[in-house]
Design goal:
The chain is an alpha+beta fold. The protein has one domain. The chain is globular. The relative contact order is 0.18. The mean pLDDT is 94. The structure holds iron/sulfur cluster (SF4).
């Protein structure tokens, strides 16, 4: 699965949930994307939900962003726009250098979600795909 395909598919999933929650306030929508609530009510949103497993060891993990608006994707590598000290990188056999966000919790914290909130997930992620 390519990064681009994942981004496009995730945007569709996210949009479907936002449309369903049209009667909620922004804060209520953010709370709805709390990991524990999503596991109960949106099992298909993330493959880890079936195992009740978190992608990052964050106590109050928020799944609203899932990806990171600071992630940058080019033809030869992925990287972090702020060179987060929690980030890293690894290389695959095809020579592509991947940004490793395993140890970075920045986009999974509710405070960060609130600061970058938009009901349009694609708008939040608009700088990810470098043209
Ligand atoms: S999750 Fe962290 S390391 Fe990854 S792109 Fe975002 S800020 Fe950078």
């Amino acid at each position: 699965m390519t990064y681009e395909y994942w981004i496009d598919q995730h945007q569709l999933k996210h949009k479907k949930i936002i449309e369903k929650l049209h009667f909620l306030s922004d804060n209520e929508i953010i709370e709805y994307f709390d990991f524990n609530n999503m596991v109960k009510n949106e099992i298909d949103f993330c493959p880890l939900y079936k195992e009740n497993k978190k992608c990052h060891d964050v106590e109050k993990l928020n799944c609203y962003l899932c990806a990171c608006p600071l992630f940058r994707l080019s033809a030869i590598k992925s990287s972090c726009a702020i060179n987060s000290r929690f980030g890293g990188e690894f290389k695959t056999d095809d020579g592509f250098v991947h940004q490793d966000c395993t140890n970075c919790h920045i986009p999974h914290k509710i405070s960060y979600v609130r600061k970058n909130f938009s009901k349009d997930w694609g708008e939040i992620m608009k700088f990810v795909k470098l043209v």
